[in-house]
Amino acid sequence: MTYSASTQYMLDTMKRLLATDSPTGFTRQATDLCAKEFEKLGIQASVTNKGCVLAELGGEGNPVIVTAHIDTLGGIVAEVKANGRLRISNLGGLKAVNCETENVRIYARNGKVYDGCLQLCNPSTHVNPKAGTEERNFDTTEIVIDEDVHTKEETLALGITNGCFVCFDPRTVITDSGYLKSRYLDDKLAAAVLFALAKKVQDGQLSLNRKVYLFLSTYEEVGHGGKAGLPGDAEEILAVDMGCVGIGLEGSERKVSICAKDAHGPYDYSVTDTLVGLAEKNGLNYAVDVYLNYSSDAQAAIAAGKDFRHALIGPGVYASHGYERSHVEGAENTLALLEAYLSE
Ligand SMILES: [Zn+2]
Asked: Which CATH number fits domain 74-168: 2.30.29.30, 3.20.20.70, 2.40.30.40, 3.40.50.300?
């Protein structure tokens, strides 16, 4: 499939981000990648104490922050077991049923990175007749390290201790039909959309109607990504985060979703209404939905006491927080809505 230069850049950036491990709390590599990418685009960016990346895109008046998050779900070693394997604690909403048999990278404190896999304890079906029916949680599953270790001492000798981060293989696939399949499309797909927006501005293809900051946050998956480090003159925050797709919702992988309300309450009506009007006017494939089990960095900023108008849009993501699926068109519709909102 051949895409426009902008879409191709967005997909390439998404792939690079997805290939960079960044479970919430261990995001330094993704922060560095984003800071360098802004530098490459000729955009001034700074890194906050928490590792968020703040870039000034240009424009004048009515400053708005457009934010996406670069932290993901993952695991952290909670116990080095007597058999040398690892019990993990989940970071964010990771569920064992969604990552059983997935390959992982374990970042030891000595700087070494080891391979492993999350498996059910005693998973061989020829040995354990209940392997298919046992409950999956992080007590019934364990990380099997791909090293010759059989005792706690041997694993500790590798440098793997409690508190080491465990990163799941995103298993990124882009199909010929334009589907994007990967862990962590939430929210690296949206982060890539923000870079595509930035590139358009830098290439002179888009002139901004107001002052625009881009804020790539960390710690969104644990609720405080958008709570600090935001520019003082901003009056609005627009979160670009995954749109929900599922039973009872209008959103889909090909649409940009506009969220009217999530678990924390309604978004700003005037901004949401303007976004809906622009989606309609520009003939975009879009949906307006209410998300029951969801929060965003825009809500985090409001919870932190910011006097912002806040809104949330994003590409539809199916099977969220599992092996997720979206579509190139969903990302393109999201970019088109951002362009309309920030330039018309
Ligand atoms: Zn998200």
From this structure: 2.40.30.40
Could you confirm whether 56 is annotated as catalytic?
no
pLDDT at 344: 72
Dist. CA 189 → ligand 1 center (Å) = 10
Ligand 1: distance of its center to the CA of 138 in Å? 22
Centre of ligand 1 to C-alpha 242, Å, is 6
Three-state SS for 344?
coil
Does the pTM of the predicted model rise above 0.90? yes
Q: Where in the chain is the domain with CATH 2.40.30.40?
A: 74-168
Query: Which residues in the chain show pLDDT less than 50?
Result: none
For residues 71 and 73, give the distance between their C-alpha atoms in angstroms, rounded to a whole number.
7
Report CA(241)–ligand 1 centroid distance (Å).
5
Catalytic residue among 37, 220, 236, 332: 220
- C-beta of residue 10 within 8 angstroms of C-beta of residue 189: no
Angle between helices 28-41 and 5-18 (to 10 degrees): 150
Fold of 5-72+184-342: Aminopeptidase (3.40.630)
